Amino acid sequence: MKAQIHPQYHENVKVTCACGNTFTVGSTKKELAVELCYDCHPFYTGKEKVLDTAGKVEKFKARQAKAGQAPEKKTKTRAKKQTKK
């Protein structure tokens, strides 16, 4: 392994979120600033909103239901070619 090519690892790096929450992690940077964290992300807080302006979810569900009801296509069998003697 080559020496002097890896960045220095810091054990206690302060992470500051846009919401004001701070916590420590290990990183190669001395300080980190993030826009979202576990304290303000909608998925973790339970305030997740699904934006469906064009009815895409309903359209998808309708297509899925229609695909499940579609009859199977029948395949045609080919006739064998006659060879000349």
Task: Describe what you observe in this structure.
The protein is built from two helices and three strands; from the N terminus they run E-E-E-H-H. The protein is α+β, with helices and mostly antiparallel strands and 85 residues long. It has a domain at 10-63: Rhinovirus 14, subunit 4 (Irregular), CATH 4.10.80.400. A three-stranded mixed beta sheet has the order 2-1-3, with no helix packed on it. The longest helix has 14 residues, at 56-69. The chain is elongated. The protein starts with 9 loop residues before the first strand and ends in a 16-residue tail after the last helix.
> What structural category do the secondary elements indicate?
alpha+beta
The residue ranges in which pLDDT falls below 50 over 5 or more consecutive positions are: none
Quantity of strands, as a count: 3
Largest sheet, in brief, is: 3 strands, mixed
- Order of strands, widest sheet: 2-1-3
Q: Cα distance, first to last residue?
A: 74 Å
- Please write the string of helix (H) and strand (E) elements: EEEHH
- CA-based shape: elongated
* CATH fold call of the domain at 10-63: Rhinovirus 14, subunit 4
Beta-strand percentage? 15-25%
Mean pLDDT: 83
Q: Please name the CATH architecture of the domain at 10-63.
A: Irregular
Quick recap of the structure?
This protein is an alpha+beta fold.
